[in-house]
Design brief:
Elements: H1 2-6, H2 11-19, H3 27-36, H4 58-76, H5 81-97, H6 108-126, H7 134-149
Helix pairs in contact: 4-5, 4-6, 5-6
Length: 150
């Protein structure tokens, strides 16, 4: 926030910075703290919670959903369309169940549209690649060898 203000970013951009994590727990950092603590029950969860506020607009909520869903897709690397669809649904449900979308006017229909859009986008980004046969690798090695001899 200090940098955003220092460089005089528009207030609307600052809203996106402040709101796109809402008041969610930083799960990875919190779990690391719990794992390394002598008394895990004494780890203060509030120290691992974003200050918020929760998204106040449809746009900042969509950014929250996109950021979280994309991060989860990278981490979980779904292998099938069904796994990808389930990952997206769980991600959206997590934010909804954590009341992060309550201060926006997103409807269930909007969330379905967002889910479908994320699926199309992530499907193109994370679809499995075909494995090239060894013949291709051998041809590439021969071509490199021929170039080296010239």
């Amino acid at each position: 926030m200090a940098l955003a203000k220092k460089y005089r970013l528009p207030s609307r951009i600052i809203d996106f910075i402040r709101e796109h994590h809402g008041t969610m727990l930083t799960v990875y950092q919190y779990s690391q703290a719990v794992a390394t603590a002598e008394s895990p029950e004494e780890v203060d969860k509030s120290l691992f919670t974003y200050p918020g506020p929760k998204p106040q607009s449809r746009e900042t909520a969509i950014l929250m959903l996109a950021d979280g869903t994309e991060a989860r897709a990278r981490a979980d690397a779904p292998r099938t369309d069904e796994e990808l669809r389930e990952l997206i649904q769980k991600s959206i449900a997590m934010y909804k169940d954590a009341d992060q979308l309550d201060e926006t006017d997103l409807t269930l229909k909007d969330l379905k549209t967002i889910e479908d859009s994320f699926f199309e986008t992530l499907q193109r980004s994370y679809h499995p690649r075909i494995k090239y046969p060894q013949v291709q690798k051998k041809l590439e090695e021969q071509a490199e060898s021929a170039l080296a001899e010239e």
